[in-house]
Amino acid sequence: MRDSTPAIRENGEPFIQTGEEHSRIFVNPIYYHQKIPNNLQAIYVRQGVYERLTQALLLLSKNYSLILYDGYRPFQVQQFLFTSFSKQIAQSFPHFTEQEIERETRKYVAFPSIEHAHLAPHLTGGAIDVTLGDLDGNALNLGTAFDEISEKFATRYFEQHPEEDWEACVHRRLLFNCMTMVGFTNYSEEWWHYDFNNVSWAGRVGAQEASYGAVEAKIQDNKVKEFRLL
């Protein structure tokens, strides 16, 4: 019996900076705006991720856009977010043990690791945090703010409680359907998080291998100065 964790066979696919060349793709690097240290002022992803975003738009009515919040995430930023969420959870649940705090934190932020068996999805360029917008790039109602700790984060929350916010339920359906139909998988605890070709994606689709390994980048002035695929 093979190990349940998919292997990684890096395919060398280009790692690119996304712009707003497409009239219905908007870039809003949220962690840069929050001034988190070492973050990026642009969104970087693998070529295949960007191509599938453009394909997803073809499945949406022309009055919708996609807004990109985060793609590739430097290791230092992953560490910062994990520590920050851990502190928030410890404050919100003072009765939690250290093990319970870590388990709850991992629901919202992947542990910062480049080991194949535990590779954080945003470190590969194969994860994207995305929402629906209008044609002016204004985010639509999907029920919660991005990265606010809430049970309403779960993608299917409003499917189970449609009376709370039917509009958000419909918008989540639209986002989920257009993204999964072009090959992405969704992380069920976060309505905005989608993966392609990384270990998380491979695990969900039952693939034996993932094609995107970790990206190690040198950051200067909030830009990727150079990188290598691990």
Describe, in plain words, how this protein is organized in 3D.
- Its cofactor is Zn(2+).
- Zn(2+) binds at residues 122, 129, 193.
- Catalyzes hydrolysis of the D-alanyl-D-alanine dipeptide.
- The protein has helices at 30-33, 47-58, 75-92, 98-108, 157-160, 166-181, 199-205; strands at residues 7-8, 15-18, 25-27, 43-46, 65-70, 127-133, 185-186, 193-195, 209-210, 215-220, 223-229.
- With 230 residues, the protein is an alpha+beta fold.
- Strand 7 and strand 8 (193-195) form a beta hairpin.
- The longest helix is centred in the middle third of the chain and has 18 residues, at 75-92.
- The protein contains seven helices and eleven strands.
- Helix 2 crosses helix 6 and helix 3 (75-92) crosses helix 4 (98-108).
- It is globular and about 40 Å long.
- 31% of the residues lie in helices and 20% in strands.
- It has a single domain (7-229), classed as Muramoyl-pentapeptide Carboxypeptidase, domain 2, CATH 3.30.1380.10.
- The mean pLDDT is 93.
